[in-house]
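ARCHIVE CARD
SHELF: 3
SLOT: left
DATA:
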Amino acid sequence: MKLVYIRPFIHFTKSQRLGLFSLISFILVLQAILWYQPLWYTPEPLPKEAQIWLQDTSSESLVPPYKSYPIKPFNPNFITEYKAFRWGMSAASYQRLQAFRTQGKFVNTVREFQEITKVPDSVLEKMAPYFKFPAWVSTYKKGNSKPFPFAQEPPKKIVKKDINSATADDLILVRGIGPVLSERILKYRAALGAFVAMSQLQEVYGLKEEVFDTLLEHFAVVQPPVLEKIKINEATIKELGVFPYFRYPVSRHIVAYRSMNGPIRFEDLTNVKGISVEKIKIIALYLEF
């Protein structure tokens, strides 16, 4: 690019050059004043009320004192890893105690605790005053260093209730079943008339497999229920449709098959469109042929 094209943009008159010089000089002087201001600037003293307020807020009286909680006695057999660390036990000592506990054994004396964990005397002196062993330890034979075996209670036998007589309150006691799910179970039981097999509970919407397994531990079909059977060869489409396994259009297929082939027998159920083959044996218990 030739100089002749940019010359009008860089050419200044004498008055313009003088103005630029004055502007730059003013900026430099102003920057120098601002830069050296801390050397000669003295802030004004704060009012007396503000000084008193600052003294009050900086006093220790505003800081709440640290509240120390008393150390409660504890059973060293159940000490947590964090608590063991706070007492000064090493990781190796804590692991020795856990390995001893996994054998189903319990520490019953202070001396036995040190023999198993190998904690130093300095740590034991801090911990021992807070050890609390069960009452049966004091009745155990003195001088016997053999660990006292943990007396496990025999598992309680669960008496299963009849699922067909269970109430909403009974069902809610099962872990995983709330008011909504218990109401669904009762409504489905009412629609069927009664449960003939526990597997039918799996057909309830929202019932998870783990909850169903828990139900099996507490409930059963204790005795065969008395059912009001459906006359499959006489019932209308509407009457059949009330039965949960014969919802429309299955009820229409039954009537159509019946009108074309005559009375339906048990072995004919597999030929009716829409009827679950896996559930035929259960369905047949509700029918009268």
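SLOT: right
DATA:
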Amino acid sequence: MPKVKKFRFKVKAGEGGTRLDAWLAQKIPDFSRSAITAAIKSGQVGIGGSIPQPKTIVRTGQMITAVLAMPITAILPESKPLDIIYADKHLAVINKPAGLVMHPSGLHKSGTLANALKAKFPNFYLVHRLDKDTSGVVLVALDLPTKNYLSKLFEERKIKKTYLSLVAGKLIPQEAYLDLPIKRGKSGKFEALAGGRTAKSRYRVKEYLPGYTLVEVFPETGRTHQIRVHFSAIKHPVVGDTMYGVAAPGLTRQFLHAYKIEFKDEQGKPRSYAAALPSDLANFLKNVKK
């Protein structure tokens, strides 16, 4: 029989206003969105004693409980090159390439980062995620205490993330704080809309280029597609983002790279890990400057 695990969460201020299935997927990254949706439909998830639906909107202060069977199908190890920035017995830091899905789900049953990690590290925990076509630094916990510690840091917003992005047009002002709530719109895509989940990002212009602006982005929250939605909302979409902007000749994905992650470990020692721009983005940038 599969192992059953119990979860209990309180919806904190700023977390309300999103669908239950999406909210739980963020809280319990060990389970796929489809697995969580199935669990909700089968009555394994409750809100204050009532049985919700996957589309139920969670509200601040609600208590959410879940009794979930751990996935029976184990992640199969697959030999695949990994760009390991750092590794010890507690933590691995990976430079994820664009085009690589984080974890098996839906149509992606194999060929994911998790499959490659399984071949290298028998036990690991993905504590945050990057979009398939976003490259850059990913933290991987190699034991449960490290997983719990890093998850707490992310929850308390004590991990500083720096992204590099190229956006369309001349972005003014040179520094700004974007406080734009995000929720799924009628189109099915995420949008900056009143009543959405709190989403905050700060940016700083690095360089103005012909038709573009190179920026550093410091997201304070980690909503799905947050950076892409925010820049689209202020009419400077991420270059190459076909979902929230337009395609860019010579670029096969959005110009978005998780450049650096900084935090303090359990001993209070500062940790900083960075990954240089991959060749596709670096070459595109070089051509823009010509």
